[in-house]
C-alpha cells in the first residue's frame, strides 16, 4: 500500500417537575434572553443584512429596553430552559444561562462537517459508541442545507431562518433533546452532515447564527484520493438497479465515461473519468481552502478541530489523533471505543493494487493538487490549526510514493491514501 509515513461524568437524573413560579420566571427570562442573544449576534457581525432583523415589525423594533432581570427570579440554569426548547432561539437563550454542576456539554455540542470521503462515517460511528456522545438520527440530517429550508443559497443577503416545524423536529427527534436533557447535559449531541463543508458560505454563517457555541470537526484527505474515492462510489452506484440508487443521485456528465469504464471499453481509464468529473475548473474539486474560508469566517478558529485523514487512519497515529479530538470535544478518551471502524470502504475491494494511470496523467493531477494543498496548508497554519509544513509532508509523500510505482514506460499504479 502506498501509504506515506506519518510523522466520566456520571449521569444525573433530570427532575422534570419545575415549580410553576420558576416556570413563569423562566418564561420571562427567556423573552429577555432571546432579545439579548438576537442583538448580540448582529453585533458580532453575523447578521449584517436588513433581512436579518428576524421578521421584527417596526413597532416591535421601537420597544423600550427590557429591564434587568432580578437575580432572585432567575431560573436555576440552562437545563430547565432546554427542557422545553423546540427552536434555536430558545437554545440560544438557554445557553446564555450559567451551566449547573456536571453539565459538561452544550446542546447540540458539535458537528462533524466534512469532508465527504474522508472517513467521516467511521468517525461518526466511533463517536456514537462513546458513552458520553449522542449521535443524531440520521447521521446526516442535512438540516441547514436542505431539510430545514433555512437559507437562500444563491444570495447571502437574503434572510436566513429555518422552518420552525423542522427546527422542532430536528431538536427533538434528530438530535434527541430529551436524551441529552435527561442526562443532565452530561452527554454531547452531534450530527455529521458532511456536505455542509462544501455548501455556500451562507450555510456556515447561518449555523453560527443559530448555534454559535458549536465545536466543529473536519477531516481532510489528500485531494486526488478523495476525488478518486468519489468517482469509485459513483461507479458502484451506477452498477445498481435504478430503484436502489441513493436518494442523492443526480446524473452527471461523468456517468457516460463511467459506464464505458464499467463495460470494460478499451482505453477508458480512471484518469479519463476523473478528468471529466473534475470539470473545467479542475482545481475547484481540490480546493478545500475555499470551502474552509467560509467556515473560518463564520466561526472562531478555536472552535475547529482539523484532522488529517492520513493521520487519523494510520495505525501508528490513530489512537493519539482520536484522543486529541476527544479532549477537544470534552469527551473522556478513557471511555472511548477501542477501534476506529472502517465504514464505506471501497479501496480495499476496488483495485486494491492501485488504479492504472500514465505518469503524465498523474503528474497533471498532482500539479493541480499541489497548488491547492499549499493554499490549504497556509490557511490552516495562519489560523493556528495545523503546522503547514507537516501537513504537506504527508500528502507529498503519497504523491512521491505513487510516482515511484511508475515503470520505465510511464505506467503507474495509483493507490489511495
Ligand atoms: N478506519 C479507516 N481507515 C482507513 N480508511 C477509512 C477508514 N474508515 C473509512 N475510511 C475510508 O474513508 C472513505 C469513506 O469516507 P466517508 O465515510 O467520509 O464517505 S462519505 O462521504 O460518507 O460517503 C472510504 O475511502 P475509499 O475506500 O477510498 O472510498 C473509506 O475506505
Automatic annotation (TrEMBL):
Its EC number is 2.8.2.-. Coiled coil: none annotated. Residues 108-333 form the Sulfotransferase domain. The active site is at 117 (for sulfotransferase activity). It comes from the Eukaryota. It holds the Pfam family Sulfotransfer_1. Keywords: Glycoprotein, Transferase. Residues 335-356 are annotated as: Disordered. 3'-phosphoadenylyl sulfate binds at residues 221, 229. It is an enzyme of class 2 (transferase). InterPro entries: NST/OST (IPR037359), P-loop_NTPase (IPR027417), Sulfotransferase_dom (IPR000863). Residues 340-356 have a biased composition (Basic and acidic residues). GO terms for molecular function: sulfotransferase activity. The keyword Metal-binding does not apply. The keyword Glycoprotein applies. Belongs to the sulfotransferase 1 family. PANTHER family: BIFUNCTIONAL HEPARAN SULFATE N-DEACETYLASE_N-SULFOTRANSFERASE, HEPARAN SULFATE SULFOTRANSFERASE. This is Sulfotransferase.
